[in-house]
Specification:
single chain; about 200 residues; alpha/beta; six-stranded mixed sheet; two-stranded antiparallel ribbon; 7 helices
Length: about 200
């Protein structure tokens, strides 16, 4: 990334657009605190990265996860509550309620007990978004959330993300799919070879 400067406002849905290797994933990982910039600064809600990690939900590309790991859909979504629980505390009643509600919103409740390795690509993506929803995040960093998913899944993801932004949350999503750009996002930022080439007005 070079000279990449941007601001994401509350309630905005912004697309990061560019070909493979443009720097979309690197930018998202830097904002999420998974990569440390050599130069420059990143602030989230006026704080340094990591100061309010519970407010930031990062969804990696599906291919970055091991879907053979022996856990159920409900178990995976519950990991979104760990920022509130800590690693050594057992989930409480309200955590189980949050997971059920998150799965309901993504239309995955009937698959709560299924092993994650048995899910289709679209079901995997919905599970990951449910995990972010139950985290009660204010910023969603999504890496290729619409990649290779069916139309019904795209509609569900769009609807849930619109609901979240209406509540004041923000979405920054990497994509190279221009088909539904104007439907799914408020504006777009175009990257190429690590640089911001252009941005549509907000």
């Amino acid at each position: 990334l070079r000279n990449a400067s941007l601001t994401v406002g509350l309630g905005e849905r912004i697309a990061l657009v560019g070909p493979n290797g443009a720097g979309k994933s690197t930018l998202l990982k830097t904002i999420a605190g998974l990569l440390k910039p050599v130069n420059g600064t990143v602030t989230l809600f006026g704080n340094r990265v990591g100061a309010c990690h519970h407010r930031t939900a990062y969804l990696p590309q599906r291919s970055d996860l091991d879907w053979r790991f022996p856990m159920t859909v409900s178990d995976l979504v519950m990991t979104g509550r760990y920022v509130h629980l800590g690693w050594l505390r057992r989930p409480r009643r309200q955590d189980h309620v949050a997971v059920r509600q998150g799965l309901d919103r993504l239309q995955m409740a009937d698959l709560a007990g299924r092993q994650i390795g048995e899910l289709s690509g679209g079901q995997q993506q919905r599970t990951l978004l449910a995990r972010a929803i139950v985290q009660e995040a204010s910023l969603f960093l999504l890496d290729e959330p619409l990649n290779a998913v069916d139309e019904s899944t795209r509609d569900i993801l769009d609807e849930v993300l619109i609901e979240e932004t209406r509540r004041g949350s923000s979405v920054l999503a990497a994509t190279h799919d221009l088909g539904r750009l104007s439907e799914s996002f408020d504006r777009a930022i175009y990257l190429r070879e690590g640089c911001i080439q252009a941005a549509t007005p907000g």
